[in-house]
Design goal:
Layout: H1 2-20, E1 47-51, H2 62-66, E2 70-71, E3 78-79, H3 93-96, E4 112-118, E5 123-128, E6 134-146, E7 149-152, E8 155-161, H4 162-177, H5 179-187, H6 193-196, E9 211-215, E10 217-223, E11 229-230, E12 238-239, E13 242-247, E14 264-274, H7 283-307
Antiparallel strand pairs: 1-5, 2-3, 4-14, 5-13, 6-7, 6-10, 6-14, 8-9, 8-13, 11-12
Helix pairs in contact: 1-7, 4-5
Length: 339
């Protein structure tokens, strides 16, 4: 009886413990970053992109900017000139001026390794088509190299879907090419993740957890229930790719890393592991329905057992036993005593 009461109490307190606990952990990987590394077939399994502070909406080339070119993407002329140091921006033009439409990537089912050179105040991006049949682990190590000497570097790592990356991209451009939009984001930057989606200038990471800020090394895993699809009220549903972003600029988040005024070298290892048993998505609401049903039914069962605890199994009343009586013989029938 005590064991049943304890289990029910634990079941009742579990939702409170899981949702209200002050301890919040980041999604970390459970496997090592080792596998059968295969060469990347660019634009077939992985695509490389970049966001740089000297390239706006017009696709200006770096040589033009370095020579003092002007860009009027926001209706105002902006001089670049000496603001751009080619030693701090190793990105090539095809990275920040990708060809449209973007190539369709194959579902990721192989292990890869690559190195990204991310310039100052920039973002290095890798685009993937993650497979729901595989568990994907990302291992990122950040460092800087000065005079052939490497040292850990602090930056931000984000995992975004296509729609989330579009918002992130707009935020980057707004902060670099529209000063008034950057001020709006600063005002709204202190919103909690559950309210950040209502910020028209804000952006979220995948599942609101895959953001790793002010770090020099991170490892995390992703397992999909099915193909990621973005549902829109005003447009048809669209399948989502995933963007791994190495962020070296001061974005709209309050706790992100500041620019280092150096080139950040990011070593990225991607390990895929085939999943042998994948539960369908409908099992999640079924599990929660069973938990709610247990919360409703179990107290009635325990109360019924408690009310019947003092009763016997059959009749429910104590059986009555007869007490033997001593019969008295009449006086006349008593024989006289013998002489």
């Amino acid at each position: 009886m005590r064991v049943s009461t304890f289990l029910v109490s634990l079941l009742l307190l579990f939702p409170l413990i899981s949702s209200g606990s002050p301890l919040q952990f980041e999604a970390q990987a459970a496997t090592n970053c080792t596998g059968e590394i295969q060469p990347i077939v660019w634009n077939e399994t992985v695509e490389r992109q970049a966001l740089v502070p000297f390239n706006g909406y017009g696709g200006w080339e770096f040589d033009e900017m370095r020579d003092g070119g002007e860009m009027a993407s926001d209706g105002q002329e902006k001089e670049f000139g000496d603001d751009i140091d080619p030693d701090l921006h190793p990105e090539e033009s095809w990275m920040y001026n990708p060809m449209w439409p973007l190539p369709v990537l194959e579902p990721l089912s192989t292990d890869h390794y690559t190195t990204l050179l991310v310039g100052n105040d920039s973002a290095g991006v890798l685009r993937f088509n993650l497979s729901s049949q595989h568990r994907t682990t990302f291992c990122i190590t950040l460092q800087t190299v000065v005079d052939n000497t490497s040292s850990p570097a602090v930056a931000d790592v984000y995992l975004l879907t296509t729609s989330q990356y579009e918002m992130y991209q707009e935020s980057y451009r707004s902060n670099h090419f529209y000063s008034w939009m950057g001020e709006v984001e600063e005002v709204l930057s202190d919103l909690s993740p559950e309210w950040r989606s209502f910020n028209p200038a804000g952006w979220n990471t995948y599942r609101d957890v895959h953001q790793y800020e002010n770090t020099d090394e991170v490892t995390f895993s992703v397992s999909l229930d099915g193909p990621e699809v973005y549902d829109s009220l005003f447009d048809s549903d669209s399948y989502q790719d995933f963007y791994l972003v190495i962020d070296t600029w001061d974005n709209s988040h309050d706790r992100d890393a500041d620019p280092l005024d150096e080139v950040v070298v990011a070593d990225v290892t991607v390990i895929t592991e085939e999943r042998t048993f994948v539960l369908p998505p409908w099992t999640v609401p079924l599990l929660f329905f069973a938990m709610i049903a247990a919360l409703v039914v179990v107290p009635f069962i325990l109360n019924s057992r408690y009310m019947n605890a003092g009763n016997d199994g059959e009749s429910g009343t104590a059986s009555m036993e007869t007490v033997p009586m001593l019969e008295q013989m009449p006086v006349d029938s008593v024989p006289p005593p013998s002489e």
